[in-house]
Amino acid sequence: MPDRLKLDNVQVQYGDVVAVRDVSLSLQTGDIGCLLGPSGCGKTSLLRAIAGFETITAGTISVENKLMATDAVNTPAEHRNIGMMFQDFALFPHLTIARNIAFGLRHLTSAGQRERIRDMLALVGLPDVGAKFPHEVSGGQQQRIALARALAPKPQLLLLDEPFSGLDEEQRTNLASEIRLLLKTQHVTALLVTHDQHEAFEMADHITLMNEGQVVQAGTGESLYQAPASPFAARFIGEGSLTKVTPSADGPPSALQLILNAASQLPASAAYQVLLRPEHLVYDPAGVPLTTIQRHYRGSHYLYELSLDDGQIVKCIAELTVEREPGQPLPVRLTEKELIVFR
């Protein structure tokens, strides 16, 4: 089966600034991929290059084995059969919702357009809003309408540029789950851009983590969380603390060293960094006391920020029965014996 989308060593450059460098990735039909990374890492520039809005200065972009872009060839966006959902929805305010969806259906007859509009509104669960204008529906409904418009022409590939950024956290989570299910049931191949790891985990089969224009690590959400390949990936994915460990020379062991005594395969005499996630530390009355900095209520549990004796901050999950105020000690122990270490 050919790759629905394939990028080989793609580079995007603006003058002397290289925004994207040597990026390769592929998506099979029906896959949902994600470009994840901080603002300014090059993910939107790459998405725009796939869509045809930016030229590439090296590498190749292919869709269904058809070459779309090289450093010398740039197929116009309107000839790529790629749909796109923009960050701001980009709905036309002066057109009804039905006419918004019909915008990319000019190749169909009037009857064909009406049928496709009806099918798309039913698909996104909004069968009765066709005669309304965008400002007459909610933000979440506008997002579904933007999705309906992007899918209406039956694109080979759907691109989503920070599609949930204008919604609150609960709406983002619910809509990401709904859109993933919809795309999967329709066998749509899609590529999402986001800086939010929770959206990436909720939506994507495959995640490409980027930083400073390059791919840092690629894999499933589980692999990126459980086995970050670099300090950057360890810091960006999850709520962990990348904590510096400097073995004591002559004095008593530090609080961190006492905590880590339960772990195996840790360097005995060299300095290193260890990834400590909140689930790695647990309240234990017989554990090592750390100073409480902050306590965050998370519904089913508390998330504590705790200070080591050298001022570094680590996080810990505790049951709601365990209550400490800032400045008070909270004794903890390690729950994971195999930890991720960077030397």
| CATH topology (level 3) name of the largest domain | Rossmann fold
Number of strands: 17
Query: Which regions are unreliable across 5 or more consecutive residues at pLDDT < 50?
Result: none
Taken from the alpha-carbon principal axes, the silhouette is elongated
- Tally the helices: 9
Question: What's the level 1 CATH class of the largest domain?
Answer: Alpha Beta
As a percent range, the share of strand residues is: 25-35%
The H-level CATH homologous superfamily of the largest domain, spelled out, is P-loop containing nucleotide triphosphate hydrolases
Computed Rg: 24 Å
H and E order: EEEHEEEHHHEHEHEEHHEHEEEEEE
Short summary of the structure?
With 343 residues, the protein is α+β, with helices and mostly antiparallel strands.
Structure description:
- The chain is an alpha+beta fold and 343 residues long.
- The protein has two domains: 5-230, P-loop containing nucleotide triphosphate hydrolases (Rossmann fold), CATH 3.40.50.300; 241-342, Beta Barrel (OB fold (Dihydrolipoamide Acetyltransferase, E2P)).
- It has nine helices and 17 strands.
- It is elongated, with a radius of gyration of 24 Å.
Brief descriptors of the model:
343 residues, OB fold (Dihydrolipoamide Acetyltransferase, E2P), 17 strands, alpha+beta, single chain, six-stranded mixed beta sheet, elongated, Rossmann fold, 2 domains, four-stranded antiparallel beta sheet
